[in-house]
Specification:
Helix content: over 70%
Distance between the termini: 28 Å
Radius of gyration: 22 Å
Strand content: under 5%
CATH superfamily: MFS general substrate transporter like domains
Structural class: mainly alpha
Order of helices and strands: EEHHHHHHHHHHHHHHHHHH
Number of helices: 18
CATH architecture: Up-down Bundle
Strand order of the largest sheet: 1-2
CATH topology: Growth Hormone, Chain: A
Number of strands: 2
Amino acid sequence: MAPKRRNGVSYAATVAEAPTGIRERVTKKLYIRIVLYCFVLFIINYLDRVNVGFAALQMNEELGLTPKIFGFGAGIFFLGYMAFEVPSNLILHKVGPRIWIARIMVTWGIISCAMAFTAGPTSFYILRFLLGVAEAGFAPGILLYLTYWFPAKERGRAVAGFMTATVLSSVIGAPLSGWLISGTHDWLGFSGWQWMFLLEGLPAIILGVVTFFYLIDRPEDDRRWLSTEERGWLIAELRKEQATVSSHGMEDFRAIFKDARVWLLTLVYMCNGIAIYGVVLWLPQIVKSIGGLSNVQTGLVSAIPFVFAAIGLIVIARSSDRTGERKLHTAFSGLLGGLFLAASAFAPSPIIGLVLLCCSAFVLWATLGVFWTLPTQFLTGAAAAGGLAAINGFAQLGGFFGPSLVGWVREGTGSFTYALLALAVFPVIGCFICLSLKARRDS
């Protein structure tokens, strides 16, 4: 049978005749053109998702929101997100990432700006839920998009590079949000938290339009990012991997709901998400409770753990890519993250507590990068589109439960100590669930 050709490139020949260094050259180009761009998009996405934690420093008092109300409202975002995650990713797989990701960004930007007009508990709940609906499909959509372009061997670092945005958005966003709610207070009669929502929501709308013109759906459609030789090698490499996954995995979307691995991975991600979102959405108030800090200082201090989280994401992802081992990197990162978080709850001083939170962040957030290499070991095609969305979507129950749990414990005990301890239990549970999975090394 003659080798397959497209646009004058023989893909079978390309694999056999691939020149030395082409893998490194292609990966470097894709990292710059795709990962760095998606990294910027995810910074804005994550900032608009969690900046409500800083708004609470002013908004809760102005609107009379109790810890229970705030915790529930912060978490209800994830119910909307979960409900529309799978349909959104299936639409993306059908119409293409460029159109659908652009649509998602413009929609969530508009609703994020509308958060500035929250008037009480009811509107707070409604807008947070709608924001979750609008953002649904973005993160798994980008994860799916990366599988269109990156071979498995390079995928761990690519995913980690993208996921680093979740922590760097806090490194950047925490001081920015702290400054905005203080520096813009009473501008044109609006409170600082209202200006924060408006000014941090606009970039999503602008970059959503840019995304429509910038992204390229698949390597087969590329005329700008890679040379003909590079594109041919990449397409051949991806097709070879897809054939391997198809031989022992699944492509049918409906089959994912019958596969125990999908549900076990969902539980792992959910357990880690309970701790991560419980910390993220309450961290400004945890730091503020130390006493004596202004809103700007609270923002600066809140950024410190996320610096360590960003470092951990890259370091552990590189280790995982180098060895090809995925399961143990994911499991033990969660375990250590939970243990450090538990230790921080009983720290004898705020400084030691902050150090332990930094240690927890270093390993706990690292699970976000390595984890997503596990489902793509057995999912491809429509099953990958639906499976990644299902895992990410159903796991968002952790994003709802974590902040709500902190609110209930905080209101019941008057302290964050037992709230942090409660959060710490879940990554430990996630570790043991992860260890029960059968996973292979990526060669």
